[in-house]
Structure formats: structure tokens, C-alpha cells
Amino acid sequence: MQKRLRSVFIGLSVLILSPLALGQRTNVRLTVLLSSWDKQNDSAQFSLQAFDTAGTSSTVNGTCSDEGKCKIDLPLDHVYRLELAGTGHVAKHMILDLNGPTLKDRKWGYRMRITVKLMPRIKNVDYSICERPLGLSHFDHKDNQFVWDERYSAELEPYYEAMQNQYLDAKAKQQETPTP
């Protein structure tokens, strides 16, 4: 009799608590606006992919419009390498650590909006800084939101500035060189 009552209690608990569990958001809705750093080069086709860094073969593909507005839903409780690419442009990536939100915190779900400009690939420019993540994101329990590591981003600024200067110099030299 006790086993039967326990089974009924567990069954009722599952039925009562299921709507609460189902109401929890388990994804982050990410909107990424991609464009070309060079305003004269706006014909690129952009793409967005997320790779689970845990070594699983889990890949999530985003959808991108012709204007470069990309959307992707990423399940929480994973760390992703988010790859941003465009035809004829240097790819960039960022690391999104989506671990951290408790079930209570997930009530309303999470949304992130990111704007990234990709640089067209031309000769005589050192793009090696793009091998490092553009940004690092993690969950802040105090604010109940995902935040960016601002110190890390600030450390990269001089390298990106040097790359941009190299790009402008190389582009100017290309325009000076007459084509046969």
C-alpha cells in the first residue's frame, strides 16, 4: 500500500511540476548583425555556426539574411565557439559560456544581440589576431544575464587597430598600382 501511495505521489508530482519545468527557457536566442568593415564591399554572403567545445560533434547552424542579420538558438549549459564568416572576408569567432543560469533564473529566457564587422581579405595584411576569440561571454549571477569580458576585449584593441592600419595602407597601395 505504501509503495502504491508513493507511486501515486510521484506521478502527481511529475504532472504538477511538468508545466513549471516546461515553462523554463533552455535556449539563448542570439541575433548577430554581420557587415563588411569596408563599406564598398557589401555583397558578401554571411554565415554563422556554433560548435560545442566539449568535443561533441554538436554543431548549430544559424540563418542569415542577405543583409547580414543572423539568428541562432543555442541550448544553455554548454560552451560554444561561435564562428562568424563572410565570402571574401576574414572569419572571426567568439566563445560563449552558456553555463550558469539556475532553473529559477531561466524563467524569461535570454536574448543576446551582437554587431560584428568582418574585414575583407587582401594581401599584405597580418590577420593573425583573428585567430584569437573576438570576445568571451559568461553568465553573471548577480545581474542574471550574460556579460562580456571587457578586460579581455580591451587587451585586443591595439592588435585590431594595427590590423586596420595595415589594411588601409595595403588598400591605398592597391589603388595606387595601375592595372595592366
What global shape is seen? elongated
What is the number of helical segments per DSSP (H or I, 4+ residues)?
A: 2
Low-pLDDT regions: 4-23
Strand content: 25-35%
Helix percent band: 25-40%
Supply Rg: 22 Å
Count the beta strands: 10
Notes on the structure:
- With 180 residues, the chain is an alpha+beta fold.
- It contains 2 helices and 10 strands; from the N terminus they run H-E-E-E-E-E-E-E-E-E-E-H.
- Strand 4 and strand 5 form a beta hairpin.
- The longest helix is centred in the last third of the chain and has 27 residues.
Question: Quick gist of this model?
Answer:
The chain is α+β, with helices and mostly antiparallel strands.
Features:
6-stranded mixed sheet; single chain; 180 residues; alpha+beta
Would you spell out the secondary-structure blueprint of this structure?
Layout: H1 2-22, E1 27-36, E2 46-52, E3 59-61, E4 63-64, E5 69-75, E6 79-86, E7 92-97, E8 110-118, E9 136-140, E10 145-148, H2 150-176
Parallel strand pairs: 1-8, 7-9
Antiparallel strand pairs: 1-5, 2-3, 2-6, 4-5, 6-7, 9-10
